[in-house]
Amino acid sequence: MPLLSNYLNSTPMAGWITILTMAMLISLTACDVYDSQEEPGEITEEDLPDDLPTPSSSLEEKDIFEVVEDEPKPIGGMESIYENLTYPETAREVGIQGVVVVRFVVDSEGNVREPQVIREIGGGAGEAAKEAITSTEWQPGEQRERNVAVRMTVPVRFQLQNSDSEQSTDEIESDKAEFPEAKMDEIVVTGYSS
Question: 1.10.10, 1.25.40, 3.30.1150, 2.50.20: which CATH number matches 61-192?
Answer without folding.
Answer: 3.30.1150
